[in-house]
Amino acid sequence: MTDARESAGPNGPTPARHAPGTPCWVSLMVHGPAATQEFYGALFGWEFQPGPQQLGPYVRALLDGHEVAGIGRLPPDRHLPIAWTPYFASENVDLTAETVRSCGGTIGVGPLDAADAGRLAIGSDPSGAVFGVWQAAAHLGTSVSGVPGTPAWNELLTFESATVAKFYRTVFGFQEEPVVSADFDYVTLNLGGAPVVGIHGLGQALPRDRGPHWVTYFQVADVDDALDSLVHLGGQVLKPVHDTAHGRVAAVADPEGARFALLQRRG
């Protein structure tokens, strides 16, 4: 992973509308939203308030009064993975959905209005990884980052980076910045010279039971303490803490199996 841009902190100015292509929200659809809220509330200090109900029961997670993420009940007729799904900002979700289809992706949900909050679509890239598209109206998306309990980065784990990077570049206008390495397949996607997401090609090391998928990194103050809490709350450690150039990272899963990562930044 690499660093992403950070918006205003909890006591900073009101965040501006997210630029097109920017990850602007993360959402999790589960079978038991009440238990999931308890888990993440205890882990990250989130509180919850009702959100749009177009896809069923849905709440927004708040950190010190600022919206950071969403949790909803998985509709029984939607065959979606239990996974954190990043949403990318769009000025015209219908046009973006058309581009997704023309570039070999699929749209499984929408485009549809989420009350007065905005308009959304949920699709998948040519490798099958699920992502969302958000056209903001009253709800701009995640309103705080750079502090514990907030999304810090999104990374796509897939078979190889080149083909899928071209897809996201065409759909969202990213610029590619590949890592020059014979044994490390990684591309950072930038907007305006700033990194926004990463694509990690794992080849045959990609988990066969999961397939290509996005992983959201959540910032924590102390990753060891966060792991202790996670295990106590019924979560699972998938990859122990390891040092990276950007901080200490651990790959984990919540009690329903949704995978995510914990990040303790350096300094």
UniProtKB/TrEMBL annotation:
- Extract the coiled-coil ranges from the record: none
Taking every annotated instance into account, which residue ranges of this chain make up the domain VOC? 22-136, 150-265
Query: What ranges does the record give for the region Disordered, renumbered to this chain?
Result: 1-20
InterPro entries named in the record: Anthracycline_SecMetBiosynth (IPR052164), Glyas_Bleomycin-R_OHBP_Dase (IPR029068), Glyas_Fos-R_dOase_dom (IPR004360), VOC_core (IPR037523)
Protein's UniProt name: VOC family protein
SUPFAM superfamilies associated with the record:
Glyoxalase/Bleomycin resistance protein/Dihydroxybiphenyl dioxygenase
Superkingdom of source = Bacteria
| One Pfam family of this chain | Glyoxalase
**Species name for this entry?**
Streptomyces coeruleofuscus
